[in-house]
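Sequence only, no structure available. Ideas?
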Amino acid sequence: MPLYLFHPPERYLPGLVAWLAEVQRTIGGDAVWLGWEIHRQEYDQNCGFSVGIVATAVRADPGPVILVEPVRTPSRVELERAIRGRAIVYPRAICCPEDLLAVFEEAKRDYNAGEPRLPRKLVVGVLIVRKLEKLQMWGGKDKGFLRGDDLPKGRGIPDDLADAVHEVANYLKNHDVLQTKRSQGRTKYALNDQNRPAIYRILERRSFEESLMRILERDPTTVPARLLDP
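Reply:
I predicted one. Tokens follow.
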């Protein structure tokens, strides 16, 4: 499990390098940290970083992100937006190795508790789109539709989310993400072939256009965002 650590040059925070070494020795000898890998990088001279590069890395291999202050606020805000629902960003002031170890432990504890979490129906919506895209169900022909009975079954849809699938699928249909047809008295579902660019954005960003997001985010029940990990 990766833990991403970004920090200023030591001239901005004297003693930081020694603190980092001490904390890494501590967790390296602790079995509870087995399987965790620290990815460390120094900020640029302006206490900023390439948000695009960091976001790409976190999307590919999600894990908590610790930003040791001082850090440029625009970089932090942009990163939080870019990896929303994939990982939590922890901007923290550090004064000693104990402070640094505390935020490491906070990040690990939150991850083990299932953080970050997302509204259940939002997760279901993304999983439906992902399932139909993997099956290449783009409508337009008889074999391009999936029977409604099969929509909640397997192929990336966990059993404990299946009960919400048809309700969410109707929301997606009403917002032109899905299209449906009736066959032998049953509803079949497919991705809207006329909306491919928007659908690929959904898969990349794990989010929908604003009006649909408002509906899906009303769900008070949340589930771990890692259900959306590949």
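Strands lie at 2-7, 37-42, 65-68, 89-92, 117-119, 146-147, 178-183, 186-191, 222-224.
Hope that gets you unstuck.
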